[in-house]
Amino acid sequence: MTSSLQICLPADTDNYCVMGNPISHSKSPQIHKIFAEQTDQNLFYQAILVDPDCFSEALSEFQRLGGKGLNITVPFKGDACNAVDHLTARAKKAAAVNTIWFDKKGESHGDTTDATGLVNDLRANDIQLQDKNILILGAGGAVRGVLSGLLEQGVQSITIANRTHSRAEELVTNYGSDERLSASEFTDLKSGFFDIIINGTSASLYGELLPIDDTLAMNTCCYDMVYADADTCFVKWARENGARIALDGLGMLVHQAAASFYIWRDVSPQTSSVIEIIRSKS
Ligand code: NDP
User: Fold this and answer.
1) CA of 109 to the centre of ligand 1 (A)
2) Which of 70, 105, 147, 265 is buried most, with the most CB atoms less than 10 Å from its CB?
3) How many CA atoms lie within 13 A of 155 on its CB side?
4) Ligand 1 pocket test: which of 201, 205, 255 has the largest number of ligand atoms within 8 Å of its C-beta?
5) What pTM did the predictor assign?
6) Is 138's C-beta closer than 6 angstroms to any atom of ligand 1?
7) Residue-wise over 44-66: b if at least 16 C-beta within 10 A, else e?
8) Which domain holds residue 83?
9) pLDDT bucket at 274, cuts 50 / 70 / 90
10) How far is residue 198's CA from residue 248's CA, in Å, rounded to a whole number?
11) What's the gap in Å between 248 CA and the centre of ligand 1?
């Protein structure tokens, strides 16, 4: 890991990185190294720690040194959105960028691959979205990033519940006229209604359970966007309360990385073996 003040890019290879703060925990360098080996691509991918107020400076420096593309993680996805010259439609809608690349004119482009990551991981685990009633816990950047991708899959409804209820309401309002979306308090969620529960909060990072009824989990598919070396507390809660499937977000991480890799290299890496390798190293 390097810091943004001392970015150093090896010669004779194409350089990529992930910028964030903190960043030492990131599994992205490992994932992209395996993708590169698997697809025979000559590239180097590193994690760069960026000071909170220095994102655009770090981005310019990385480009000046010849960097080809970047991933962006917490807390810079919004800064990245403001820093790039061009946004894809889905990045504009999400107001977040997790993937940047530069064109021949030197202009920067930003996209978000989080929704692709989540949808592809659900699909890989045989979880169908069409006509399903979905509960999303949380209303932060990650949820904003995946919402339109889930709506595009033909879901029946999405209910958003968040600790700060006004943020859930704001998110629903920002999606305007889509009647499939609604906001709810944690305490008003109806057991037996939801097919899929997605935890898009950071609560599992702190080992905290959300104040929702245990009966909500029964017969559902539960998905925690947070991933950890052991089961997250949300995954444990889901298993203990009768969920049919309980998954953490490692698969989403690998699938969103694969979508970034495709943008940069025009090659699709194989994901399931990479998820297994990363899981076995945890
Ligand atoms: P944000 O900081 O934007 O939002 C955090 C969300 O979590 C808010 O809704 C916040 O509620 C809620 N929250 C935080 N702590 C608690 C708590 N103790 N109890 C209840 N709610 C809580 O973060 P992001 O949306 O960017 O990321 C959310 C999580 O998703 C992160 O942990 C991140 O690691 C994970 N993630 C995983 C990805 C993957 O590939 N697997 C991709 C992207 C994100 P409030 O509004 O009330 O503050």
Assistant:
1) 25
2) 70
3) 26
4) 201
5) 0.95
6) yes
7) bbbbbbbeeebbeebbebbbeee
8) 3-112
9) very high
10) 10
11) 14
Q: How many A from CA of 38 to the centre of ligand 1?
A: 32
Tell me what the mean pLDDT of segment 18-25 comes to. Answer: 94
Element (H, E) at 128: none
Q: Give yes or no for residue 196 CB within 6 A of ligand 1.
A: no
Domain count, the chain: 2
Q: Tell me, yes or no, whether 243 and 120 share the same domain.
A: yes
Say yes or no: 138 and 232 in one domain.
yes
Residue ending a domain, among 87, 112, 137, is 112
- Taking a C-beta distance cutoff of 8 angstroms, is the pair 158, 136 a contact? yes
The per-residue pLDDT for range 80-129, each reduced to its tens digit, is 999 999 999 999 989 999 999 999 999 999 999 999 999 999 999 999 99
Per-residue pLDDT band for 272 (boundaries 50, 70, 90) equals: very high
The residue type at 139: A
Are residues 215 and 138 located together in one domain of the fold?
Answer: yes
Name 238's Cβ contacts closer than 8 Å, sequence gap at least 6: 197, 217, 220, 222, 224, 246
pLDDT in tens, 109-119: 999 999 999 99
| Atom 40 in ligand 1: residue holding the nearest Cα | 253
Q: Using 50, 70 and 90 to split pLDDT, how confident is the model at 1?
A: low
202 C-alpha to ligand 1 centroid (Å):
4
Asked if residue 179 lies in contact with residue 158, where contact means CB atoms within 8 angstroms, the answer is no
Atom of ligand 1 nearest to the CA of 138: 9
